[in-house]
Amino acid sequence: MASEAALFYLFGAVAIVASLFVIAQRNPIYSVLLLIASFGALSGLYVLLDAPFAAVIQIIVYAGAIMVLFLFVVMLLNAPHEDTEFDEHLIAAAERGVGVPAERVRGTGAPGLNKAPMRFGTALAIALLVELVWAVTKGGGEAGQFAGGSVASVGAIGRSLFTEYAFPFEVTSILILVAMVGAVVLARQEKGPAARPPELP
Amino acid sequence: MVTLNHYLVLSAILFAIGTAGVFVRRNLITILLSIEIMLNAVNLTFVAFGRAMGSADGQIIVFFVMTVAAAEAAVGLAIVISLFRHRESLNPDSFTALKW
Questions:
Q1: In 10 A of CB A147, how many CB atoms?
Q2: Which of B28, B21, B25 is nearest to B83 (CA)?
Q3: Mean of all residue pLDDT scores within chain B
Q4: Mind listing the pLDDT tens digit for each residue in A156-199?
């Protein structure tokens, strides 16, 4: 199964590189599109893992619904770059000679504001990566072999979902309803003072 | 031969990338995207373990995780829109009204 290994490394490399570019981009639209590419690679990995149901809902639900929602919000807010008004205030203050030096604010990499917590966070993430990889590879190789044969058809998943997991399934529908109502309430446009009912004397 | 450990290491790398994104980026939308990366890394773990154990439960949990992710994205983006209306900014450092 040399081709399976080749496909695994191809999809894995695409997923990692696309995810890295997601957090390296300054324009959120490119971030969203690259994340869709990363999800496509993950969907290929699910196919390699004999999980066609997960692969298909990864494409339909994640790439098709959630990421489009993100894309709508990015375009609606019309604030494409990370340096919005807040950083412009900082840059203006830096040019007047107060606050942080201008070259730190205008850095080409991450924004110059609060570098220290960012470096700390990066160090924490790298430590987490090293720790996870160490813990995973410590177990030895022979335990990780996949059993042969197909695992679960979509029919088996459907049967299990509507019998054994019927209660969580219904709870999820209530969760979706609550999230929908909450999103509408939170994002509703505030009415101006003219639309309010008149104050009682 | 691709084993379970390969998938777990890949998932660990993706999860660390997502964590780094949450810490490093100063944009609310990119932070939400990093959370999605982390959720997907965990999904990959579930599917890989389900394959190794020969059971369908891994994919069923992935289904529920995706549903919760959809709800989280909807509510989170609504909060982002509401915050943007108040401050005209997506930088989390500008939301300091609760800071003493």
A1: 9
A2: B28
A3: 88
A4: 888 989 999 999 999 999 999 999 999 999 888 766 555 555 55
Is B47 at the interface with chain A, CB within 8 A?
yes
A/B interface, count of CB pairs below 8 Å: 261
Q: What's the pLDDT band for A137 if we cut at 50, 70, 90?
A: confident
* A91-118 pLDDT per residue, tens: 565 555 555 544 444 443 444 456 777 7
Structure tokens at A161: 């979902």
What's the mean pLDDT in A58-79?
88
Identify all chain A residues contacting B79, using CB atoms and an 8 Å cutoff.
186
CA distance to A35, A63, A69, A77, B40, per residue, from B33 (Å) = 8, 12, 12, 16, 11
Q: Say which DSSP state A191 is in.
A: P
From the candidates B9, B37, B61, which should be mutated to test the interface with A, based on the most A CB atoms within 10 A?
B37
SS3 for A135?
helix
Q: Do A15 and B30 touch (CB under 8 A)?
A: no
Confidence band of A134 (pLDDT split at 50, 70, 90): confident
Contact between A70 and B70 (Cβ < 8 Å): no
- Which single residue is written with the structure tokens 């009912």? A197
Closest chain B residue to A8, measured at CA: B2
Check the CA dihedral A57-A6-B33-B56 and report its sign.
Answer: positive
Whether the CB-CB separation of B57 and B51 falls below 8 Å is answered with no
| Nearest Cα residue to A45 out of B31, B64, B9, B16 | B9
Nearest-neighbour CA in chain B from A147: distance (Å): 6
Q: Is A44 on the interface with B (CB under 8 A)?
A: no
